[in-house]
Amino acid sequence: MRLDPSWSNAAGTQRTQISSWAQVWRKQSVSTKVGAVIVLALVVVAVLAPVVAPHDPNQLNFVSPLRPPSLQHPMGTDESGRDVLSRCLYALRLDLFVVLVVTYAPLPVGVVLGAIAGYHGGMIDSVISRFIDVLLSIPFLVLVVAVIAVIGPGLTGFFVAVPVISWALYARIARSAMLGIREMPFMQAGLALGFSNTRVIFRHGIPNIIRTSLVYSTVDLMANLLLLAGLSYIGLGVRPPQPELGAIIADGQPFLLDAWWVATMPGLVLVTIGIGVALLGEGLNDGELTGARQ
What we know:
Strand content: under 5%
CATH superfamily: MetI-like
């Protein structure tokens, strides 16, 4: 019996890819590995929240209000008898989805426009840069609150306001990085070989400047998460009964002395996310996870 050569070639390619990823993982620092594991674990738990949550997050149980952590309720219950662990899991699921969308949806737009502005210069750079300056001159929190005041409390205003400013930040970072590499030999070599400006930007420019934006995106992601939690804390974010980390903290604040777990547990979740994202961002900043291409 003879095996099809294409099967062995495909298997060899797959083994090479797995070996490459394993080699990349071994090269990472301990802090980067810890950050990656924390972030991956949180994402997996968030995705599987309906499966791993021990109780319905919105199920009321007035017989067992403000119960301390136990085997039945590992993070205790709130003033309405709802399981805090289940509410934190569903809140993590919602928060990660929202902040990932508002953080990374505008990133490619900003990087492309910033790269075009930095590469071409002249009138194109002036137009894009002035537009960026106008957007960034608007106080971010003022814009978010103004949009929410017009649209109303909820996620719609958050989805609208945050990307409007975020893309401009990524564009400014990408423009600055492109200005630093556009005269380098590997960029000029593409033009000498007859490549179009578009190909030089996307094939040689953006792969060499994307790391800076990715590093900043980890900071932006955590800032957006805290902004969402803060808005929900003051009643302008996620609306009840949908669980959200900031809203859970607000609900538990009146009982902080007698039932510390209601507000403390979601706070610890936020801290854990921050530690994981910070460690992962440090690895990106050191060039361990994404390297420059020339």
